[in-house]
Amino acid sequence: MSETIAGVRIPDSALAREATELVREVSPPLLFDHSRRVFLFGSLRGAEQGLHFDPELLYVGAMFHDLGLTERFRRTDQRFEIDGADEARRFLQTHGITGEPAERVWTAIALHTTPEIPLHMAPEIALVTRGVDLDVLGIGYHAVPDEQRAAVIAAHPRPDFKNRILAMFTEGIKDRPDTTFGNVKADVLAHFVPGFRRGDFVDVIKSSDWAE
After folding, report:
1. How does pLDDT run across 137-164, given as a tens digit for each residue?
2. In contact, 107 and 78? CB cutoff 8 Å
């Protein structure tokens, strides 16, 4: 039986159900609820903008976007966004979704912390970012009516979310500080990891092996 929250139908295919159970199994409730809100808010922003998108692909993108912060899927040699993107692509391929649709979901997750660029790409890519932006940063908060926002939060609460998600970001990336070079997660480590020194683009250029 499919579930509807704030007027948004949660995909109920075998693939979507398996994605839900995987994320529920490996993620704390904080991340599970956040990921579902990303789908719901992304879908609401898509409807508001009149975008045509594949709900199932958006669902996988939203549900897997933070898997790189979980103990099972966290690596230390690449950005956490790529951890989730790689797993989403593998998951889709095992369900017969390959080629461009799988790459679209990979891109949606890989770019979800890169400001502005995803918003000019395919709807599923843009809407993962829209959902994250609304839930984490409050961008687009007033684009979703109060009653719809309330319905989403009733289904997937966000108690002390700001502090708790920042703590989860810190835990998930503190062992790979170099992967935050040039992206917004460097701000997290600058606030919460003593001694962290962010990479500097100008320093990289000036210290390269080129003589001039």
Report:
1. 999 999 999 999 999 999 999 999 999 9
2. no
Q: What is the pTM of this model?
A: 0.95
Give ∠ CA 14-80-179 in degrees, rounded to 5: 160
Residue 74 phi, psi dihedral angles, 5° rounding = -75, 130
Q: Is the dihedral of CA 109, 114, 116, 117 positive or negative?
A: negative
Residue-level pLDDT at 17:
97
In 155-174, which positions are buried (b, 16+ CB within 10 angstroms) versus exposed (e)?
bbeeeebeeebeebbbebbe
The answer to whether residue 126 scores a pLDDT higher than 80 is yes
Q: Which of 13, 39, 27, 57 is nearest to 152 (CA)?
A: 39
Helix, strand, coil in percent for the chain, rounding step 5: 65, 0, 35
The confidence score (pLDDT) of residue 1 equals 62
The mean pLDDT value for 49-61 works out to 98
d(CA 205, CA 157): 45
Residues 6+ apart with CB under 8 A from 27: 35, 66, 67, 70
